[in-house]
Write a structure and sequence with these properties.
The chain is of the alpha/beta class. The chain has three domains: 194 residues, 3-Layer(bba) Sandwich (FAD/NAD(P)-binding domain), CATH 3.50.50; 132 residues, FAD/NAD(P)-binding domain (3-Layer(bba) Sandwich), CATH 3.50.50; 56 residues, no CATH class. The strands form six sheets. Strands 1, 2, 3, 4, 5, 6 and 19 form a seven-stranded mixed sheet that branches. Strands 8-15-9-10-11 form a five-stranded parallel sheet. It has a three-stranded antiparallel sheet with strand order 12-13-14, with no helix packed on it. Helix 4 links the parallel strand 9 and strand 10. The radius of gyration is 22 Å and the shape is globular. The two termini are 15 Å apart. The protein binds flavin-adenine dinucleotide. Flavin-adenine dinucleotide binds next to helix 1, strand 4, strand 7, helix 3 and helix 4.
């Protein structure tokens, strides 16, 4: 069965919720899709122990009351072509045609390999947050948090709120850099207030700059962490280690749709114009997918993209000054939390980079690019589909993971990101029209 809507919004995080609300305000038929059972995305992820506190709850309740908005939860978009997507919901495939599309697909954590990073008990910093909110027990556990960026503080606060003993937060950026970042926050009073409040909640937790993880040791799970700090090397006994080195925009669907990406940094983001339009007509993007900017930026961009997708360009334009301000804050992050070479050098030749297919750094180092490495080692061909190891190799060796080196045109790029975006049932794929429906119809060979 093929369904249709005027505006399809993929992702129900802060950006997607704002986009759906803005588009629906103009009376068009909106469908909001997310692979999670509940709306909220990463930052407003539902917390099973404190459900009443979710900031997404009220926003979502208002949206559900709108007669022209349909919510599809636990529905994963596995493939997209201009004008149509393929969803998998409760094991069933659905095809959805759209007039306009807003990609609010967010970001994932950047995990960099080091000896012992695949031990049970080692997770991402945001990963630990997500696990705790989903009910995984961390009360009383000794947790060490490391990596880089403001997410470390948020993860530590969540771990403490769930009863963990947070032993320390180890940030790789040098202390002088952190001081410079803090000194610039006065221009964004809300961010400053948020940072002060977080630090106050974590007053008893040491926060050390210029420190990174060398290795994790253990047997059936992590037992000890080896840290490099300005005061020298340390070993700390832990029950849990959470390490995240920032975020990577989720661009797979955008790539599949042929949208141009911005490759200014190691991790590409979706290129958008001042109204959040991508390079493909009728497709807009908002939030972390267009570059890491945080929750406030995601909300503003979501609203802009929603208005624009519904054809209300004046309403979108009115939000441009707010967006500029939010993006100016976002620009501080890569400058002040740039990764030091020592973090990249933590992986040894024997360290696994692709943990789905068990491929070590030594096995990858004989190849000159991602495509050659993938063909010879199956790196990136496991269940994460290169989301973890591809991003790590982009940092470690400058390999571009989403596109083949031969893919220089939008069409070739789209082809290099073949469906499915996530592991999918064969029965669902059988319902997929690929190559894109439009070109198949043109050639008159649709079956
Ligand atoms: C693990 C993690 C934890 C974080 N924790 C915090 C925090 O505590 N505080 C903070 O300020 N910031 C946090 N962030 C940063 C956060 O990304 C942003 O602040 C904010 O959530 C961005 O909003 P967004 O709407 O752009 O993306 P997101 O909130 O990431 O929302 C994107 C949504 O798209 C959905 N989606 C993606 N692809 C598909 C698909 N193919 N089919 C269906 N649905 C799809 C996802 O399920 C998700 O719900 C975290 C980020 C990560 C990765």
């Amino acid at each position: 069965m093929i369904e249709s809507c005027d505006v399809l919004v993929i992702g129900a995080g802060p950006a997607g919720l704002a986009a759906a609300r803005a588009a629906a305000a103009h009376g068009v038929e909106v469908v909001l899709v997310d692979m999670q059972a509940r709306a909220g995305g990463q930052v407003w992820r539902h917390d099973v122990r404190k459900p009443e506190r979710s900031p997404a709850r009220q926003r979502f309740a208002q949206l559900r009351a709108l007669p022209n908005l349909r919510w599809l939860g636990q529905a994963q978009v596995v493939a997209a072509s201009p004008g149509e997507v393929l969803l998998e919901e409760a094991g069933l495939a659905r095809r959805m045609r759209f007039g306009a599309l807003v990609l609010a697909t967010g970001a994932r954590e950047l995990l960099l390999p080091f000896p012992g990073w695949t031990l049970p008990g080692v997770t991402g910093a945001g990963g630990l947050q997500a696990l705790a909110k989903q009910g995984w027990p961390i009360a009383g556990k000794r947790v060490l948090i490391a990596g880089s960026g403001p997410l470390l503080l948020a993860a530590a606060a969540t771990a403490r709120a769930h009863g963990a003993e947070v032993l320390g937060i180890y940030e790789q950026a040098p202390p002088a850099q952190l001081a410079r970042f803090a000194a610039r926050l006065w221009r964004w009073p809300a961010k400053l207030a948020q940072a002060v409040a977080l630090r106050a909640r974590l007053a008893a937790v040491p926060y050390r700059g210029g420190s990174w993880i060398r290795a994790a040791h253990g047997d059936e799970c992590v037992r000890e962490v080896e840290l490099e700090t300005p005061a020298g090397r340390r070993r700390v006994a832990v029950d849990q280690l959470a390490v995240g080195y920032g975020l990577v925009p989720n661009t797979e669907l955008a790539t599949q749709l042929g949208c141009a990406l911005d490759h200014a940094t190691a991790h590409a983001c979706v290129r958008v114009d001042a109204n959040l339009a991508t390079s493909v007509a009728g497709i807009f993007a908002a939030g972390e997918a267009c570059g890491i900017g945080g929750v406030d930026c995601a909300r503003i961009e979501g609203a802009m993209a929603g208005h624009a997708a519904a054809g209300a360009l004046d309403a979108a334009r009115a939000l441009r000054p707010q967006r500029r301000r939010a993006r100016a804050f976002a620009e501080l992050l890569p400058r002040h939390f740039a990764l030091c070479q020592a973090v990249r050098d933590a992986a040894t030749p024997r360290t696994l980079v692709c943990r789905c297919e068990d491929v070590s750094l030594a096995q990858l180092d004989v190849h000159r690019d991602w495509r050659a490495a993938k063909l010879a080692t199956r790196c990136g061909m496991g269940s994460c589909q290169g989301r973890i190891c591809g991003a790590a190799l982009a940092e470690l060796r400058g390999f571009v993971a989403t596109a083949s080196p031969l893919a220089s045109t939008p069409a070739a790029l789209a082809h290099s990101a073949r469906p499915p975006v996530f592991p999918t049932r064969l029965a669902s794929l059988a319902g997929l029209s690929y190559p894109p429906a439009a070109s198949v119809q043109e050639s008159g060979s649709q079956t």
